[in-house]
Write a structure and sequence with these properties.
The chain is mainly beta. It has a single domain, classed as Immunoglobulin-like (Sandwich). 0% of the residues lie in helices and 55% in strands. It contains no helices and 9 strands. The strands form 2 sheets. Strands 3, 6, 7, 8 and 9 form a 5-stranded antiparallel beta sheet that branches. The chain has a 4-stranded antiparallel beta sheet with strand order 1-2-5-4, with no helix packed on it. Strand 8 and strand 9 form a beta hairpin. The chain is globular. The mean pLDDT is 95.
């Protein structure tokens, strides 16, 4: 798993690249506050090496809760900036600050 942040000087956004290795997975997405936890909007593309990857533009100066959905199973990213307890989900979500 990895998260890469690229701040854009000309716009108030940060390009965030989410990637997760899931060779045996069929569908992987990243869901969170930034896409209303919508699996379709957060779908990641599978690369030949079995890694799923996607780039999202997130408004700067904010933090977002998120998780990966790997074939229907929610997974936290070990490289999240922090974790936050979520009463609705009954578990911790990863947090990314941009």
């Amino acid at each position: 798993m990895s998260i890469k942040k690229q701040f854009i000087k000309s716009k108030p956004v940060c390009k965030v690249t989410f990637s997760i290795e899931a060779k045996d997975a069929i569908n992987v997405a990243v869901v969170g506050d930034f896409n209303n936890w919508n699996v379709e909007e957060g779908a990641l593309n599978k690369l030949k090496n079995g890694t799923f990857k996607g780039v999202f533009e997130l408004p700067k100066d904010a933090s977002y809760e998120f998780k990966y959905v790997v074939d229907g199973t929610y997974v936290n990213d070990a490289e999240a900036d922090s974790y936050k307890w979520n009463e609705f989900a009954g578990t911790e979500n990863g947090v990314i600050a941009v």
